[in-house]
Write a structure and sequence with these properties.
Number of helices of chain B: 8
Number of domains of chain B: 2
Helix content of chain B: 10-25%
Structural class of chain B: alpha/beta
Distance between the termini of chain B: 9 Å
CATH topology of the largest domain in chain B: Leucine-rich repeat, LRR (right-handed beta-alpha superhelix)
CATH superfamily of the largest domain in chain B: Ribonuclease Inhibitor
Shape of chain A: globular
Number of helices of chain A: 6
Largest sheet of chain A: 12 strands, mixed
Largest sheet of chain B: 12 strands, mixed
CATH class of the largest domain in chain B: Alpha Beta
Structural class of chain A: alpha/beta
Oligomer: heterodimer
Number of strands of chain B: 12
Chain lengths: 330, 306
């Protein structure tokens, strides 16, 4: 059978599909000519270390999950550049200006470029990121730096923002004076969870803890929480926040948790604990230590769990604990 | 909620249904052409041709395209748009077109199949108002139009590609941009970031009204608005018919310093009365918050989705 196929001409290759998207795959990116313009360029199916030509002018650029390492200096993308999970990406060009920059999981990226101008910036999971540019405009939209654990500060030029997510930014302990946020800030498990005061410019901002709205008092004065506030809270989301703010281990000990079972796993001692709650099923948690991070966790399990093994198996998706026999737990 | 009434007035003119020469009442009416389920779509073309051959039809300023589907709701608007394009030489005074004055009994908004509206803009350089209902298959190919003042697109779910299309068009005299964004269940696949090019204020220098209506993403959109340069050039910001709650409403307090704004419309909302009062007290312009809604099992419906 004769299956010789002629390679598509570049006119065919760069013709937008019905959705107005120019979609390339494999190594077709090598054929993009200098000065190429289109509305949406989708390179997510491309392979190799994609190197883009000079003079690109686009509305939206899709590069999620590719092996791209950097973008050309003169690239122009009006609306959005989607680079999430580009694990080789190590730099972006100075003066980059676009509406939205999606950089989730770009964990080789340590810095943002000088004179960056962007409204929506998502850097969640960029744990290597530590350097803000000296000058930039990051403003108007949403800034998500969740899990940027190396970050120690935010730049003075930041904002005004619609929202700021600093969850799990464990080393971030201060906010710039005069930072303006029209919507909300999520501070769960960040270094900001322990501050006692906030800039005057944020006195009306909505505070969130893992997406749940909390009061300013619950942020700045967690010592005001009483154990009975937690026990009588019937909204499960809010109760979880209260327990987080109170301290999980302190809560379990002061609530006189009953120890249902004890054993040992890779992280050390494990306990299955039970606290009765008013007008709700009892809070049964597996207390264990993560072997990788050394952090203590209280993981809620169904109230009918009888043993630590059964609870751990349930969390892994097994009904029968005998079916759950991991070679290693990390 | 649903759209259960056809237009009785359009572009300031009383609406008259046109089927036959006796329906002609002179050029100072807005004529609606439509077919019911047992009339073929081809009949639409004949009726438009007939309309274009009436005495003084060259003075006609407003036309409505009603239900065009006949007995097949998957018939899109491309044929009827071709009819209107063909009619352009006979209607040199036309200033307003509404493609899709269709009630839910004629066809649910989410079932209406649209098509590319750009040929209408090219055929009618004097057009000032272009309105369309229904987001399926809707597009506006990149185009320039010097006289368009109002663009209204009503959908139960707007594809983000439509926002991209609008951003790529050049409408230097656009004053009124009204977008019914809808819900993800019926075609909205965008996010607040898709509105960013519009919100920069660089696209439409004369815009004075922005409507982001009938949106279930309005709580995510609203916090960005006080920070957007576009707001300082607007007189009216219309966020009505959506599912706005306290989460999206409180950030609007920051509109207090927003330049020329004269009116903020939040009607059909889920905002607590005390937050409405706070907005009305704090903002130095009219805040309309009619038609408060009650969340149904925490579910907040927009005005029209299906």
């Amino acid at each position: 059978m004769n299956q010789s196929t002629t390679p598509p001409s570049s006119a065919d290759l760069f013709r937008p599909n019905a959705d107005g998207i120019v979609q390339l795959e494999g190594h077709q990116w090598e054929q993009i000519p200098p000065g190429f313009q289109c509305e949406v360029l989708d390179l997510t199916r491309c392979e190799g270390t994609i190197q883009l030509p000079a003079g690109l002018k686009l509305y939206e650029l899709l590069l999620e999950g590719t092996a791209i390492e950097s973008l050309p200096d003169d690239i122009q993308v009006e609306m959005a550049i989607r680079l999430s999970n580009c694990r080789e990406l190590h730099s972006l060009p100075a003066g980059l200006s676009t509406g939205s920059l999606f950089l989730q999981g770009c964990n080789s990226l340590t810095r943002l470029p000088e004179d960056l101008d962007v409204w929506f910036l998502d850097m969640s999971g960029c744990w290597a990121f530590q350097g803000w540019p000296k000058h930039a405009n990051i403003w108007a939209g949403n800034l998500n730096i969740r899990g940027c654990t190396a970050l120690q500060n935010l730049p003075a030029y930041l904002g005004p923002l619609a929202s700021l997510n600093v969850r799990d930014c464990s080393n971030l302990e201060t906010l710039p004076d005069n930072l303006k946020i029209t919507g909300w800030i999520d501070i769960a498990q960040s270094g900001l969870a322990n501050v006692k005061s906030i800039p005057e410019s944020l006195k009306n901002v909505e505070i969130r803890w893992q997406g749940v709205r909390i009061s300013h008092e619950l942020w700045l004065d967690p010592g005001s929480i009483q154990i009975h506030d937690i026990l009588k809270e019937d909204n499960a989301e809010r109760r979880r926040v209260l327990i987080d703010r109170y301290g999980q281990s302190r809560f379990m000990s002061e609530a006189n948790a009953e120890v249902l079972d004890e054993d040992q796993d890779a992280g050390g001692d494990r306990k299955l604990l039970r606290v009765p709650l008013q007008e709700d099923e009892p809070l049964v948690t597996l207390s264990c230590r993560c072997p990788s991070t050394g952090r203590d966790y209280f993981l809620r399990v169904p109230p009918n769990m009888q043993s630590c093994r059964q609870a751990a198996a349930w969390m892994a998706g097994y009904d029968n604990p005998d079916d759950y026999a991991p070679e290693i737990e990390t | 909620m649903t759209i259960d009434q056809n237009y009785v007035k359009f572009f300031g003119l009383p609406v008259v249904d046109f089927e036959k020469p006796e329906d002609w009442k002179g050029p100072s009416k807005a004529y609606r052409v439509r077919v019911d389920w047992d009339t073929s779509t081809e009949e639409m073309g004949k009726r438009y041709e007939l309309l274009g051959s009436q005495a003084d039809s060259d003075k006609l300023t407003a036309i409505i395209v009603g239900a065009w589907m006949g007995d097949d709701s998957s018939n899109d608007s491309s044929t009827v748009i071709q009819h209107l394009v063909a009619l352009a030489p006979k209607l040199p005074a036309l200033k307003a077109i509404f493609v899709g004055d269709i009630t839910y009994e004629e066809n649910e908004m989410s079932w209406i199949e649209q098509s590319d509206l750009a040929p209408l803009l090219a055929a009618y350089p004097g057009l000032e108002l272009l309105q369309a209902r229904g987001g399926n298959s809707l597009s506006i190919s990149q185009t320039t139009h010097e006289n368009l003042k109002s663009l209204i697109i009503e959908t139960g779910g707007m594809p983000r590609s439509v926002l991209r299309d609008i951003s790529r068009c050049s409408f230097p005299n656009l004053e009124h941009l009204e977008l019914w964004l809808g819900t993800g269940e019926y075609g909205w696949d965008g996010g607040v970031e898709d509105l960013q090019p519009i919100l920069t204020g660089k696209l439409f220098p004369k815009l004075s009204y922005l409507g982001l209506r009938n949106s279930d993403a309005i709580d995510e959109i609203a916090p960005v608005l006080p920070n957007a340069p576009l707001i300082s050039q607007l007189q009216v910001l219309d966020l009505s018919l959506g599912s706005l709650s306290d989460v999206g409403a409180r950030p609007l307090l920051a509109l207090a310093s927003a330049g020329n704004l004269k009116k903020l419309d939040l009607s059909h909302h889920y905002i607590a009365p005390e937050v409405v009062e706070e907005l009305q007290a704090a903002l130095p312009f009219e805040v309309v918050a009619n038609d408060p809604q009650e969340a149904d099992d925490e579910w907040r419906n927009i005005y029209v989705s299906e």
